Amino acid sequence: MADHITIRKAQGTWSVRAGGAVLGESSDALELVEGDYPAVIYFPRGDIAMAFLDRTDKTSHCPHKGDASYYSVVTKSTTLANMVWSYENPNESVARIKDYLAFYGGGDITVEQL
Questions:
Q1: What is the pLDDT of residues 16-27, one digit of tens each?
Q2: Would you list the domain boundaries of the chain?
Q3: What percentage of the chain carries pLDDT values higher than 90?
Q4: In sequence order, which residues have a C-beta less than 8 Å from that of residue 73 and are 6 or more positions away?
Q5: Looking at domain 5-113, which of 3.40.1190.20, 1.10.1660.10, 2.170.150.40, 1.10.443.10 is its CATH number?
Q6: Residue 99 neighbours by CB distance under 10 Å
Q7: Which end of the chain has less neighbouring CB within 10 Å, N or C?
Q8: Which 3-state string (H, E, C) describes 14-51?
Q9: Does residue 71 register a pLDDT over 70?
């Protein structure tokens, strides 16, 4: 693993909500800490209501994690563009986050420990 990235099981149960809708809840979430950045909670894809997510064309590259794909959150009232990302084929050093999703918190998306 890149020496400045730590991945561990997130303690407790975590939920993610958007526009009042619960997108998922998990006791199998991972916490990724990269350098001085705030921790990011990654949810197993199987614990997320994928019907709310719409894959977009956006991608990005991290030299330590690999190529990220993005999703928009679609609720009854709004579309939150590119607010979810996933490393579907991450670099070997962070392979634990494969098949996990992370959400930009704040605003209309809430990621919280229950």
A1: 999 778 999 999
A2: 5-113
A3: 85
A4: 18, 19, 23, 52, 53, 54, 79, 80, 83, 84, 103, 109
A5: 2.170.150.40
A6: 13
A7: C
A8: EEEEECCEEEEEECCCEEEEECCCCCEEEEEHHHECHH
A9: yes
